[in-house]
Amino acid sequence: MDTHAFTSDVAFTPTVKAIQTRKGSRQSYARVEERGGWQADITPDLAAFIEMQTSIFLSTANGDGQPYIQHRGGPAGFLKVLDERTIGFADFSGNRQFITQGNLADNPRAFLFLIDYAHRQRIKIWGSARVVEGDAEMMARLMPRDYKARPEQVILFTVSAWDANCPQHIPQRFEAADVAAALAERDRRIEWLEQEIVRLREASIVGAGE
């Protein structure tokens, strides 16, 4: 049972708050707590951000507290918002180490880290997660259409709290597909301009000969 006074207490432990006090940032975070702390429900804006991701990081820890981070990727929309507190995705077959699944069996606490390099945005999501095996209906709901991967199981993530970070120190990078599309559009524009130059030259020659 969650006994936190504020949603942000999932991260701001007494030890963290003591360090914040010593280093001078506690007062500003206390004002956030006075307003209710971080949000727990998935807002429409957050849902849109979640479902445009193509690359995410899922953090778990085993029963001894040893952390582990696993990358998961897929086409935009592979990470789906199922309701105001639940995120789900099809877990594709990989190297079959099953570290994340083993960790979640011993310790359901989990963390999602989402980053959009192009727009320099990042979202941190605290919660718990569980693996669902053998649910064909859920798998069909979460499996991206026409994506060439073999789904093995489903992971459902229950949100406890989330926070958006500032863009400071996030390098700006772009998806290869977006860069290719922009270059293709540039090339089309150049081709049109070259054709327009030829047309205008031909028109000027005709006009000069009249």
TrEMBL record:
Q: What is this protein called?
A: Pyridoxamine 5'-phosphate oxidase N-terminal domain-containing protein
Indicate the segments forming the Pyridoxamine 5'-phosphate oxidase N-terminal domain, all copies. Answer: 43-164
Pfam families given in the database record:
PNPOx_N
Q: What is the lineage of its organism?
A: Bacteria, Pseudomonadati, Pseudomonadota, Alphaproteobacteria, Hyphomicrobiales
> Which InterPro entries does its entry note?
Pyridox_Oxase_N, Split_barrel_FMN-bd
